[in-house]
Amino acid sequence: MTTATDIETALRAVVDPELGADVVELGMVRGIDLDAGVATIRLALTIASCPLRAQIEGDVVRKVAALPDIETVEVRVTAMSPEERSALMGVARRKAREQAGDTMVSPSTRVIAVGSGKGGVGKSSLSVNLAVALAAAGHRVGLLDADIWGFSIPRMLGATGARLEAGPDRKIVPLEVGGVQMVSTGLLLDDEDRALMWRGLMLSKALEQFLRDVAWDPALDYLVLDLPPGTGDVQMALARLLPQAELVVVTTPQKAAQKVAMRVADMARRSYLPVVAVIENMSGFTTEEGRHYALFGEGGGRALADELGVPLLARVPLDPFVVEGGDGGHPVVAAHPEAPSARAILAAAARLQELIPPAAAETCTARVELLVQQLAKREGRAEG
Fold first, then answer.
1. Are residues 275 and 379 both part of a single domain?
2. What CA–CA distance (Å, rounded) separates 70 from 87?
């Protein structure tokens, strides 16, 4: 049974994207009540009208809802007093000093990990096209090919001949292709046919290097991670290195794929990595005459989404343009936006922006600092 302690542990993965510390450490969590599957979280924010309020509340709901036996999450928000805001800013500054340079990914960057239970379900194609779609919507987007053995992102973005280079600070500079910053082990090798014979520990270390030694743009709105299939070292390292990460599970319609994908969701729950949505790929084929063939069965994506209690973002049909675009380096959402597959992926990207909105351009820190200064002045006048 989930306890209040379990909920508090999950809340430690909810990071204030601007202050860079979790809501428990910052003293924002004022109470946790658990009754018959209903978790009520009392949360105190710096300012009631904080632009990041919706993001923090949404993160709390997703983290807690990922725990077993939790059916409903209610968040009750209040505003901090001036004295409490002053104490919070002190904690935030200390935390920033202690954790400076932990990763090069800004706490305000929303991290979308795309995972699957097994290979061959089109996870990489979806990762590329989601990243391109988010960039086309006006966001700053990064794409990390975390499928260390099975890298395919460079080819899908038309960058097979490119190589990563280091900047003056000796940090790796991401390759920018079509408005997307991209990093992959495929950009470190002279031959894309060369096999990487790395053991599990080296895989997690590679992910760590891509997060700590790559000069990711601090203004990134989204970082999309193409995970390797399964529930191995990379997935477990992700929850530790990027506590703000959230998982989109890819499955095909058939029941066997759905059951395998469920194992990824189970891994995510036990790692306090919230599953935010499901995408069903290879969802049948429609001929030019309008005849539809469910080549891989039907209903797997919907069943998985219902079982997990998350939205089914899209049912992406089989489409020759996806294969053509992947082999030729022309993602279907850019090359053929009117294709059925592109329309489904663009709809999924639009829904993702609603579920995981980017951090607001207007933030709370300046307001809080001003209030702290005003409090200090008032205290000084009172003492005088």
1. no
2. 32
Q: Measured between alpha carbons, how far is 136 from 140 in angstroms, rounded to an integer?
A: 9
> Residues near 252 by Cβ (< 8 Å), separated by ≥ 6?
121, 122, 280, 281, 282, 283, 296, 300, 301
CATH number (domain holding residue 251): 3.40.50.300
Same domain, 141 and 217: yes
- 43 shares its domain with 77: yes
Alpha-carbon distance values, 33 to 24, 58, 73, 75 (Å): 15, 18, 10, 11
Q: How many distinct structural domains can be found in the chain?
A: 2
Q: Which residue, chain included where needed, has tokens 């520990």?
A: 201
Strands 245-251, 110-116: pairing is parallel
How do residues 103-132 score in pLDDT, each as one tens digit? 889 888 999 999 887 778 889 999 999 999
Looking at the chain, the whole-number percentage of residues with pLDDT higher than 90 is: 42
Cα distances from 356 to residues 73, 80, 321, in angstroms, run 17, 25, 28
In sign, the C-alpha dihedral spanning 61, 241, 106, 174 is negative
- pLDDT category, 365, cuts 50, 70, 90? low
The domain containing residue 222 runs over which residues? 110-355
Task: Report the CATH number at residue 374.
Answer: 3.30.300.130
What are the tens digits of pLDDT across the range 178-191? 899 999 988 877 65
Specify whether 339 is located in the same domain as 265.
yes
Q: Which residues of 230-268 are buried (b: 16+ CB within 10 A; e: fewer)?
A: bbebbbbbbbebbbbbbbbbbbbbbeebbebbbebbebb
CB atoms under 10 Å from CB of 293, counted, come to 10
